[in-house]
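Researcher: Let's do a round of design. I'm pasting the structure tokens now; please hold your answer until I've finished.
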């Protein structure tokens, strides 16, 4: 793409490779994929990054438990996360692994900058550490002897380097105040501001009692604290520390980080502080989504109720899973996964609404209108009303996407689908076939136009089904971006044989 296209950079968290991917990972990744696909179709030069977080005590201990070397261990799990990208049809431009030499070089460069600029000093850490969270906690934060997240904590005393986070309270508060759009949703923003207003303590940024990490430049007894290492992945992927790297120059100013609410503090507080201290601009936007439970229960390995994305896709279909995750809960809120809920969405929104609209229109045209794009006559008020309802969808969905309002984005399109289904019922082309074939052709043309526009706009959510619908409308592949929304179908173009795109799930 040429340099004049606006840029858009979207990231997922890099996932810990101590466990197989589950629905939570799939959720963030699909959301980022929807944003990336939408922006590409809207003419942006997009860079979509995902990957794996492979260092730290949690990984080192898991490898030990599995009886393999950390390297063997992480290589195995990284493959599983790459397979997740394939399974979910993610359009990621790069998959980063923090054990890669380029990442080590980037993390070390950031460290050196922080040292050179006077923000890191050597000291001694004595306090609590939760290996599961890879986070330090002070006594006050503990709840019944555990981390506030419920993770077990252990007492750590070791020589450690510190980042002077306490100095960044004011700059951070100023940054939040000057950049009201930095963080969403609003409720999370308030939480973070309150936390920073409460005061910040210097942060231990190295560990010296184990070795699985990026060695600290000039003092290799230490490895970098895994969060400092991990956060810099977002820069590594763009070619940093080469500040003239085209990807870095073009994309860093336009980054959107998607994360779960569990890791908001690391991204909203530590990360902008590290960046400001290193003389790099803080991220443009950060959005923290909510938490999935399974049939009302917290998802956890120990409860044995993690949901395997491979099984989900095998049972319901990929587009069905993608749509369900994006539509079921307002992005930012918590949600519950249940078999009944995904079946309901699949059968009502996809099979009955979108699938049925496409099937009834296209099979009717195939049987009764010569299997070509019909030739419309003058539009009646009801035709104009339906087309007018669809008209602002690009503007509306853009606004939703820029706020990461993914479920709202689906809702907008599905109001058009519902309206189009009502229009078919009212216009009754099956009756017009006997009384007024010219009017029938107009009605069918209007419906195909609506279907074309909605299928173009819905591609980011259900790419497989929309590709099939657009194939069946004979829309060439190079005319499916948003720039072509206003390029209406050409009457007379031959249509292929239609087939259903969203089968109904039968009750088991
Ligand atoms: O935190 N519901 O990695 P991680 C929704 N390596 N989202 C969920 C979820 C759930 N039940 N469970 C997991 C890490 N997620 C660090 C990140 S980034 C520089 C380093 C998603 O493997 C959600 O995005 O524990 C969450 O933030 C992420 O997985 C945590 O993944």
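Researcher: That's everything. Go ahead.
Model: Designed sequence:
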């Amino acid at each position: 793409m040429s340099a004049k296209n606006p840029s858009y950079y979207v990231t997922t968290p890099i996932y810990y490779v101590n466990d197989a991917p589950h629905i939570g990972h799939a959720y963030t990744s699909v959301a980022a994929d929807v944003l990336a696909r939408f922006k590409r179709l809207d003419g942006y030069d997009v860079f979509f990054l995902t990957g794996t977080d492979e260092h730290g005590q949690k990984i080192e201990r898991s490898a030990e438990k599995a009886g393999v070397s950390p390297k063997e261990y992480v290589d195995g799990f990284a493959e599983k996360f790459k397979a997740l990208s394939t399974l979910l049809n993610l359009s990621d431009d790069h998959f980063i692994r923090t054990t890669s030499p380029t990442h080590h070089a980037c993390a070390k460069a950031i460290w050196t900058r922080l040292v050179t600029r006077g923000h890191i000093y050597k000291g001694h850490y004595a306090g609590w550490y939760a290996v599961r969270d890879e986070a330090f906690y002070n006594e006050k934060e503990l709840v019944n002897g555990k981390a506030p997240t419920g993770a077990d904590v252990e007492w750590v005393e070791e020589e450690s380097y510190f980042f002077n986070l306490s100095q960044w309270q004011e700059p951070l508060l100023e940054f939040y105040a000057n950049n009201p759009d930095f963080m969403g949703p609003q409720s999370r923003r308030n939480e973070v501001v309150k936390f920073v207003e409460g005061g910040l303590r210097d942060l231990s940024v190295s560990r010296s009692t184990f070795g699985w990490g990026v060695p600290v430049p000039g003092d290799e007894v230490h490895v970098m604290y895994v969060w400092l290492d991990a956060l810099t992945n977002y820069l590594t992927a763009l070619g940093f520390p080469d500040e003239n790297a085209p990807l870095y120059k073009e994309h860093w100013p336009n980054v959107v980080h998607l994360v779960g609410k569990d890791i908001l503090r690391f991204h909203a507080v530590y990360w902008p502080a590290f960046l400001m201290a290193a003389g790099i601009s803080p991220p443009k936007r950060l959005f923290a989504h909510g938490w999935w439970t399974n049939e009302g229960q917290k998802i956890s390995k120990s409860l044995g109720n993690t949901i395997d994305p491979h099984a989900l896709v095998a049972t319901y279909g990929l587009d069905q899973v993608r749509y369900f995750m994006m539509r079921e809960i307002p992005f930012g809120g918590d949600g519950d996964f249940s078999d009944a809920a995904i079946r309901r969405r699949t059968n009502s929104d996809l099979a009955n609404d979108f699938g049925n609209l496409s099937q009834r229109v296209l099979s009717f045209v195939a049987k009764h209108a010569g299997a070509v794009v019909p030739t419309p006559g003058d539009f009646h008020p009801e035709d104009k009303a339906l087309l007018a309802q669809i008209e602002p969808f690009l503007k509306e969905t853009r606004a939703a996407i820029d706020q990461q309002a993914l479920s709202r984005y689906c809702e907008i399109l599905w109001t058009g689908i519902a309206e189009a289904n009502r229009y078919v019922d009212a216009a009754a082309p099956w009756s017009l076939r006997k009384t007024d074939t010219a009017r029938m052709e107009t009605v069918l043309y209007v419906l195909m136009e609506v279907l074309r526009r909605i299928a173009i706009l819905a591609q980011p959510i259900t790419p497989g089904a929309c590709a099939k619908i657009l194939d069946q409308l004979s829309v060439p592949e190079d005319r499916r971006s948003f720039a072509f929304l206003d390029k209406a179908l050409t009457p007379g173009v031959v249509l292929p044989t239609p087939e259903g795109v969203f089968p109904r799930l039968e009750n088991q």
